[in-house]
Write a structure and sequence with these properties.
The chain is mainly alpha-helical. The chain has three domains: 66 residues, no CATH class; 133 residues, Penicillin amidase (Acylase) alpha subunit, N-terminal domain; 65 residues, no CATH class. The protein contains eleven helices and nine strands. It has a three-stranded antiparallel sheet, with helices on one face. Strands 1-2 form a two-stranded antiparallel ribbon. A two-stranded antiparallel sheet has the order 3-4. A hairpin with an 8-residue loop joins strand 7 and strand 8. Helix 5 packs across helix 7. The longest helix is centred in the middle third of the chain and has 21 residues. The chain is globular and about 80 Å long. The two termini are 38 Å apart.
Length: 347
């Protein structure tokens, strides 16, 4: 890690340079940095969440992630007193959404106005009613949920922000939704473009219909074809793999795989335009301190960055499917399992 600067303001915008008013005054002293020592829980955990209280005197960042992932991690750890390797495999690949568990009951309130819905919308609602909040690739509910979330955020904030809405960081949108779901609606819920005063239920109803319409427009009215993995896809692309002939000759890009999860699941698969996965875990590790050679790992690509190698992109399918490889530590185990030995000799 690096030092945390002490300065006036947040450092998130350009400040006047003609004075030293906003200059760094030094760094937060090591003894005052956030830390955890022998916590009562018996473990430490992190998932890009805020790790300090509101009383912490120094500014670190405002771009912490909403606590859905960390809440789910702590929930799984709390399910039993002792965990084994299989438990941690399950945790690292968990696609259950605490966000969906919080928001979906609000969505299901649309049932009070079923008579106003069309056949497709009622079918969606029935599917969502039985959802277990897992963002599995073979389910329809995750697709509806992600489309709804996008419409919900825009209907809540788009009227006030106008063209600026698209420039708003996703983390701020997520935190705003989290706040109103936890604390209740505020004045931003009303759509200032209409003469009526909209309630949160009104915005949810509108967002549900918008989501259904947007999915139908993009993927047709056959709801059974709206499976999340058919829309949410992952391809590992080489920097020059976008040149089709180069990819065809050298096999630079990976195959395309169906992906579950989302940015709010412990197993994260953040997406961009067209629901193409743009970010995920750069590696997964399970370290067995009782027997280091019983540790496990997987990376999205492979052990080699050379396209001609058999180990180039050799782990991608395993990674997407939630599998692992043995991560050997002892010299004897490594030598026995070694495929090649690289010897560096002085000239």
């Amino acid at each position: 890690g690096g030092g945390i600067p002490v300065r006036k303001g947040y450092g998130s915008m350009i400040r006047p340079g003609q004075t030293d008013e906003f200059d760094w005054k030094g760094y937060v002293a090591p003894a005052q940095l956030p830390y955890s020592f022998n916590p009562e829980t018996g473990y430490v955990s992190s998932a890009n969440n805020r790790t300090v209280s509101d009383e912490y005197p120094y500014y670190i960042s405002f771009r912490f992630y909403v606590p859905y992932r960390i809440d789910r991690i702590r929930e799984m750890i709390g399910e039993k007193e002792k965990h084994d390797v299989d438990d941690f495999r399950r945790m690292l690949t968990d696609q259950h959404s605490a966000y969906a568990r919080l928001l979906t009951p609000f969505i299901l309130g649309v049932r009070d106005r079923k008579s106003e819905l069309n056949a497709v919308e009622n079918q969606i609602l029935d599917i969502m009613t039985d959802w277990d909040y897992d963002m599995n690739a073979d389910q329809v509910s995750p697709t509806v949920f992600e489309f709804f979330s996008a419409s919900f955020a825009e209907n809540l904030l788009g009227d006030e922000l106008g063209e600026l809405y698209d420039q708003l960081p996703g983390s701020i949108k997520d935190y705003y939704i989290y706040r109103i779901l936890k604390n209740g609606p505020d004045e931003w819920v009303d759509d200032i473009r209409t003469p009526e005063t909209e309630t949160l239920d009104d915005i949810i109803f509108r967002s549900f219909r918008d989501a259904a319409g947007n999915i139908s427009e993009s993927y047709g009215d056959n709801v059974s074809e709206w499976k999340w993995g058919e829309i949410h896809r992952i391809t590992l692309e080489h920097p020059i793999g976008s040149i089709r002939i180069m990819d065809r000759i050298f096999g630079l890009n990976s195959e395309t795989y169906a992906a579950g999860g989302s940015d709010h699941t412990v197993c994260p698969y953040t997406y961009g335009e067209g629901f193409r996965v743009t970010n995920g875990a750069s590696e997964r590790h399970i370290y067995n301190l009782a027997d280091w050679d019983e540790s496990w790992t997987v990376i999205p690509t492979g052990a080699s960055g050379i396209p001609a190698s058999e180990f180039y992109l050799s782990q991608t399918k395993t990674y997407v499917e939630g599998g692992f490889y043995r991560d050997l530590f002892s010299e004897d185990a490594v030598r026995k399992a070694a495929k090649y030995v690289l010897k560096l000799k002085p000239s």
